[in-house]
Amino acid sequence: MPNQPIERFEIAINTPAGRLSTVVDVPTSFVPVTAIVPLLRRLGEEAQLLEESQLSAQGKPRSCTKGCSACCHMLVPLSPPEAYALMNRIRSWPAEKQEHIATRFTQVKSVLLVKGLWHRLVELGESSQPPDDETLEPINQEFYALRIACPFLEEDMCSIYDERPAACRELLVTSPADHCQNMASHTILPIPAPVRISPVLGLLWSELTDSPLRLIPLPIVSEWVERHRDDNEQTWQGSRLLDAALDKVWRYLSQSFPQAEDKPRGEG
Hints:
Elements: E1 6-15, E2 18-27, E3 30-31, H1 37-57, E4 77-78, H2 80-91, H3 95-114, H4 118-126, H5 133-146, E5 153-154, E6 157-158, H6 166-170, H7 197-209, E7 216-217, H8 221-227, E8 236-237, H9 238-256, E9 265-267
Antiparallel strand pairs: 1-2, 1-9, 3-8, 4-7, 5-6
Helix pairs in contact: 2-8, 7-9
């Protein structure tokens, strides 16, 4: 966050693709949880770059390019911190741009209401139980079958690329890009994401606020944030947020990567 005193930390994380070492700047003051979102996204991207490098060395480079937009018709999940960060960004836009994106979201809602998916997405975002694959898979399939473009998609390009959700950043493939246009008929080869940042942020938020683990579908993000506006008023000391976030990264890695037995270290 600009114009705030910061403390610099060196971070070391063991991932399935190798050891990640990086430097992050954390505010020393009390800040909202949204302050940690860009930092964790960058950690996730740097970890995934290790995976990309390994696959590229094996002759399997990333095939995603500017203009690919098949994945922009999928149902994107957000953690509460990402939802708040995204809406904060939208509210910083000029009024005309805000109205344009609000119209896009209204159009998506209209389609989902007609197709009977809207209320299911709202229930998913408000559920007190962590979502499981059995619940999510049919919803994901029904949504993708509608081929609804993301409200932020403009001429097959993401209009919020720098602020796009972690789930979008992690959806990369090595299979031919045109195969993604018909996933039912082609084999899609994804690049593994060593750390999925949205679940990490969800765990962090759940612990900080003593609330259920939430998954917020992108189409309902505006209304969800409005219903939970007061929760976004809380602040925490910056280094505490970092320590708590790194603990969630370690928990995630320890489940999927047993060799990650050492917790990520943050040294000032």
